[in-house]
Amino acid sequence: MRQVFQQSLSELQERLVGIAELVETSITEATQAFATSDAELAESVIERTEEVEALALELDELAINILLRESPVASDLRLVVSSLRMSSSLERMADLAQHIAQLARYRYPESAIPQGLRKIFSKMGAIDVEMASAVVTLLREQEPETVNVIRDLDDGLDKRHAKVFEKVLSDKLSANPLGVVDATLASRYHERFGDHAVSVAKQMQYFFSGELA
Amino acid sequence: MRQVFQQSLSELQERLVGIAELVETSITEATQAFATSDAELAESVIERTEEVEALALELDELAINILLRESPVASDLRLVVSSLRMSSSLERMADLAQHIAQLARYRYPESAIPQGLRKIFSKMGAIDVEMASAVVTLLREQEPETVNVIRDLDDGLDKRHAKVFEKVLSDKLSANPLGVVDATLASRYHERFGDHAVSVAKQMQYFFSGELA
């Protein structure tokens, strides 16, 4: 019985890692599609979103079944509780990658990135990809230090988010309302992606320490 | 023992209702502060956000304690699991109300709403307030029909969200990049507020039916 229980918990962890890996692929492709106006790549991100949603649902079912059958305690209970919440965050991260990909597709064959903002969006995309990769590592290796790596990356993202608005409001962009809308939304999507990575990190922090935050 | 358990579940429900009521107050005040450029009212919304956060944390602690001590099953387990997720949604709704209030405060004494968009934002705000009120009713009365009320309201919100972009891109707004940024963000905040109300509705749907979605 105990062995079956440990197997269920391992499966829960493996599934979390699996979903996080799909999120990493999605944000990598979305960032590239956005930078290079690649409509085909954007489509691949959009298609992956439903897969992530279905896997998150299966993960929730597994977590609830563990609660029902095994009545876990201590760190086992914390893993199950945090899984239920991380699945939502991972799903949202896939959604946000999709939103970035959709911006690229809507504007195709034009670029969704206004002139003068390419460099900063390329940096925001790179940070998001790094955060997604750190989330995979955190879920797989369960090393508490990775939590801080994710928080530090998020600080860099927030700085760029503020800078996008400065640029949008100061530049010759003013002449192009579509560019202003796209830049505002894209920057917000990147920033929220980072926030959800931090949510996952907080849930793992809770798993490690037992302290809710 | 059974009696203590039922008391804990009632307390969980009451606390959910309490948090939802604070969210309703916040979105009501945020909408008014945004419409009338009332910096003082905006401040009251911003201050309430921390209170909601603290209450959501306490709710999570209670839910986890119930899982640990009572090993609930069937609809009792579903209420506890859905509470853990609804607390996140309610917290995000308070955050989004705060973001709307912050837009009003940043632009004070100017209006954050560009000319020509006052009517549509007033409607979006009214729908958000109605959704928050329906969430309170859903959590208090636990009537399955309220789920559909919330979904229908969200459809109206999504239509207006699309319309804001049409207007932003077609109007004389083009001359004012700050107005374009504000309108884009405000519309997105209103739309996301509605999405989180739908998330709460979905969680209650799961509580009623046992079907995850």
From TrEMBL, chains A, B:
Subcellular location: Cytoplasm
UniProt superkingdom: Bacteria
Pfam family membership, one: PhoU
Main localization of the protein described in the UniProt heading: cytoplasm
Chain ranges of the PhoU domain: 19-103, 122-203
GO cellular component entries: cytoplasm
UniProt entry keywords in alphabetical sequence: Cytoplasm, Phosphate transport, Transport
Residues of the signal peptide: none
GO biological process, alphabetically ordered: intracellular phosphate ion homeostasis; negative regulation of phosphate metabolic process; phosphate ion transport
Family: Belongs to the PhoU family.
Function: Plays a role in the regulation of phosphate uptake.
NCBIfam families, A to Z: phoU_full (TIGR02135)
Assembly mode: Homodimer.
Name of this chain's protein: Phosphate-specific transport system accessory protein PhoU
